[in-house]
Write a structure and sequence with these properties.
Blueprint: E1 2-6, E2 14-19, E3 22-27, H1 29-42, E4 52-54, H2 57-66, H3 85-105, E5 109-114, H4 127-142, E6 147-150, H5 156-164, H6 189-197, H7 203-213, H8 222-244
Helix pairs in contact: 1-7, 1-8, 2-3, 3-4, 5-6
Length: 246
């Protein structure tokens, strides 16, 4: 099995680094969360096995723009929430990339599209739901079999605060999903995360902390449960597919 990831940048899913060993994927904190869940289901770490592929957000947007035809759900008369076509089209593009990789490697590919759900429209109470459904729909319409939406509510800092808060870590975290995603707002999630460590951690330090100590199974948070349940289902579907082949 291979893992295909796309996020917003190096501080969440990770990115490609060019060094003495050539181009290689450098996992961010969210990639390690994905990896931990896969290990729990399949007893296999894509990161450790060097079976991770990555598509940057600009590359994914370019692929979506180059697609020759609009997917059926964007045709006139098909009702979808306004303002989410970008998420949907990029999900279709990621699904197409997953299919290409599956053919190239003759292997199953689990694709994960990470997006924060914070935005300028703070009055849109269904923003998170619409982003998740748009990504899931786009992945399914692409024909990719094992696609997953990874969408924190409202942003990845809420998941990290839940795990690393000083009082009752991992527990009763639904309230964090109502916090502002605006970093300049009072009591912002970014500020709360900095308070957990009495300092702002660099991406590399946060990544190492998540790799070493993040316990996904203890997370008591609705948006995280939606994601982890979806990823575990995709892993179980892969296991059922590969088991049937023997």
């Amino acid at each position: 099995m291979r893992l295909l990831l796309s996020g917003e940048g190096p501080s969440d899913i990770g990115g490609i680094s060019t060094g003495l060993q050539g181009r290689e994927f450098v996992a961010g904190p969210m990639a390690h969360i994905v990896d931990k869940i896969i290990v729990s289901v399949l007893d296999f770490s894509p990161i450790a096995a060097d079976c991770v592929d990555h598509v940057s957000r600009p590359a994914l947007a370019a692929k979506a723009k180059s697609m020759p035809r609009k997917p059926p759900m964007l045709l006139p008369g098909v009702k979808r929430p306004a303002g989410y076509a970008g998420h949907l089209l990029q999900a279709v593009a990621l699904g197409k990339c997953a299919q290409e990789l599956a053919t190239e490697h003759n292997d199953a590919v689990v694709s994960v599209l990470f997006r924060d759900s914070d935005g300028t429209n703070s009055d849109d109470l269904k923003r998170w739901e619409n982003i998740v459904s748009s990504i899931e729909y786009g992945l399914s319409m692409s024909g990719a079999r094992f696609g997953v939406a990874m969408v924190p509510k409202p942003k990845q800092e809420s998941w990290l605060v839940c795990a690393f808060k000083r009082i009752d870590p991992y527990l009763n975290c639904a309230f964090l999903e109502r916090a502002s995603g605006n970093d300049s707002s009072p009591n912002s999630l970014k500020g709360q995360l900095d308070d957990c460590f009495e300092a702002a951690l660099a991406t590399q330090d946060m990544t190492e902390l998540v790799r070493e100590s993040f316990d996904w199974a203890r997370m008591d948070m609705p948006s995280f449960k939606v994601f982890s349940d979806s990823l575990r289902k995709a892993c179980n579907d892969v296991y059922g597919l590969t088991s049937a082949a023997y």
